[in-house]
Write a structure and sequence with these properties.
This protein is an alpha+beta fold. It is built from five helices and 15 strands. Strands 8-7-9-14-15 form a five-stranded antiparallel beta sheet, with helices on one face. Strands 1, 2, 4 and 5 form a four-stranded antiparallel beta sheet that branches. α1 packs antiparallel against α2 and α3 packs antiparallel against α4. It starts with a helix and ends in an 11-residue tail after the last helix. The relative contact order is 0.16.
Length: about 260
């Protein structure tokens, strides 16, 4: 049995490998569930009152909390998958965004891939800042600075990251943008989920009739990336990355340190 971070990662790796035109989001949900159970975990999303699925699957202008169903993934779609696992009473939480190839619309695919790439990179900039930050809200500053440097993108303000541990959602809040307060001190024992949600347009959203799925009001495309990160005596370690975040953090001047 492996820990919740790598179990969550395994579920997302399985989904990433399976995403293709013609597959439904419910099929992707079941693939993630099988990967989690095969490693001795259970979906912590299923522990949320009123939610019975293993992942959230958000397609195109759906940003987060998309309910898996019979919706079929099509060429050129931008698909965000958020997954989490509970293993031995500890929680992992992570999200990826995948753009489905479409040879007939290369410009559309490139535009959506850039949105996904900017969102992922902003997450890594936030994680890199966590490694040197004195206070948690410096993470949001780093994310906002990076996103603004990349063009006209919107950072959702209604949905943010969170602490994680014995429960999937714990204090403290983790903002993806500047706020006036400094937030709690960054010190060993802090474990947070850093998860920017970025749109290609405005940041206003609405909740669809299923009472879960959050979509952009202007119909713009959206992306969502997330990692769970631990601060410990030796530094930081990305719990939901196989290498602890080493490859992605190296260009940003950060070397993650395994937890002893």
């Amino acid at each position: 049995m492996v820990g919740p971070g790598l179990t969550t990662l395994a579920s997302l790796d399985a989904v990433r490998a399976a995403i293709r035109p013609g597959i439904s989001t419910l099929e992707l949900n079941d693939i993630a569930d099988a990967a989690i159970r095969a490693r001795g975990g259970v979906s912590n999303f299923q522990l949320v009152p009123g939610y019975r699925h293993t992942v959230c699957a958000s397609v195109n202008d759906d940003v987060v909390h998309g309910i898996p169903n019979d919706r079929v993934v099509g060429p050129g779609d931008i698909v965000s998958i958020d997954s989490g696992a509970d293993v031995g009473g500890w929680n992992g939480d992570s999200a990826i965004t995948v753009v489905v190839p479409d040879a007939s619309r290369p410009e559309l695919v490139a535009e959506r891939q850039r949105l996904a790439d900017v969102t992922e990179a902003s997450m890594w900039h936030g994680i890199a800042r966590l490694a040197v930050a004195r206070h948690l809200n410096e993470v949001g500053e780093a994310i906002e600075d990076y996103v603004e440097s990349q063009g006209e993108y919107g950072i959702l303000t209604d949905y943010i990251g969170h602490g994680i541990g014995r429960s999937m959602h714990e204090e403290p809040p983790v903002f993806n943008y500047r706020v006036r307060s400094r937030g709690p001190a960054v010190k060993p024992g802090l474990v947070v989920a850093i998860e920017p949600m970025i749109t290609a347009g405005g940041i206003d959203t609405f909740t669809r009739d299923d009472d879960w799925t959050v979509a952009t009001r202007d119909g713009s495309m959206a992306a969502h990336w997330e990692h769970s990160v631990a601060v410990h005596q030796g530094g930081i370690w990305v719990l939901t990355a196989a290498d602890g975040g080493a490859a992605a953090l190296a260009p940003l001047g950060v070397t993650p340190v395994p937890i002893a």
